[in-house]
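not sure who needs this but someone in the group chat was asking about Xanthine dehydrogenase accessory factor from Rhizobium leguminosarum so here u go. i didnt clean anything up, its just raw.
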Amino acid sequence: MDAANLARLNDARRGRRAAILLTDLETGDDSVVFEGYSGPPSFEPAIDAAFRSGKSTSVEVDGHPYFLNVHLPPARIVIIGAVHISQILAQMASLVGFDVRIIDPRTAFATPERFPGIDLTGDWPVDVLKDRPLDAYTALVAVTHDPKIDDFPISEALRSGCFYVGALGSRKTQAARLERLRVDGVDEARLARISGPIGLDIGAASPAEIAVAILAEIIHTLRTREISPIGDK
């Protein structure tokens, strides 16, 4: 591997930016492709599919064999609210391979006994997210039902380009939430990205079933997301 390309991959890893090392298997030449590839159109389907799946693979483009070595940041789920749904969602998401973090200023709920082994912070999201910001490889799940706790991280997730933003509540609750965010200056395109009511519509009733619906929607969104042209080859 070219030393400059190794440096670019290391920079991407530190900055939680997705990258692919693209190697021509005939010549050995390699280059680094960032998510949002904007090079020759013939490469785009293979590059986009690799970024969505996270799997390294061999492809043939324009009659030449290439190997795509995919480097994705570890996907995170940040849960706002240490509630019953969060207890189950955190366990399932960890098993699937997500890094999970829970934030809730209500210290009676945010206890290590209720969330053993989970990254748990009993503080306000506005303070926590200053030091540990959201990014494009983070899913934000807001489940407190309290606008004073949920609204800021939802707005911040939309601003930061989180790949998934979901909020618990009825359609009436969601409508009120959207109006509050409009007043705070969030535009309609970003508001449309909020999944509310949260989760896939599977008729979930119990906290465990709601957690399943949320995790399924997060995975679906991650694996089918749009790869917009923001990078280069």
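also The chain has eight helices and ten strands. if thats useful
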